[in-house]
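[User]
Um, tokens okay?
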Amino acid sequence: MYTDEQRRRHIFDLQTFLRRIQRAQGYARPIAADGIFGPETASAVRDFQRQNGLPVTGTADYDTWTAIYLAYLALLAGDVLPAAVSFFPAGANAALSAGDRGASVFVLQLMLNTAMPHFANAAPVPLTGEYDADTVAGVRRAQGLFLLPQTGVTDRATWEALALLHNGFFGRTPLTWLDQMP
């Protein structure tokens, strides 16, 4: 038997999926997930149906539910925390600096390019995987924004500040919060 509690949970899930989709589309006021299938939810379903070539009914039939869920999953895949955070070299005194190369440097360059232009109007750093003069300059700009010593060397403090900015900018949960989740 399908209980009222199960129905509310399914509606809450549907609203959560729609909210994430609306956020990705830039809605100013995405739907609130409250577990009640009211006019706001029906309107969000109709909008999704209209945008995705489905019959516009305002109800979440099998085809609509499946399409909403698949759209949500696709966005969720993009929300996964960047592997960048785990790339930082191990060790208490680890750092990346001029002349270094490899995956960690490439990820550093990606973080600089995705977040920094929004705060420092900075030119992109070429994605070479080599800690070159452009990377040093980009790191110095970031360090200046974070009020860190502008050495151009990516120490743990610089890396963590960039990762937090990157994660925050893209709505990703900081790693320290994941450790505390049930």
Notes: The chain has nine helices and no strands. Confidence is low (pLDDT under 50) at residues 82-86, 173-182. The longest helix spans residues 4-24. The CA atoms of residues 32 and 39 lie 12 Å apart.
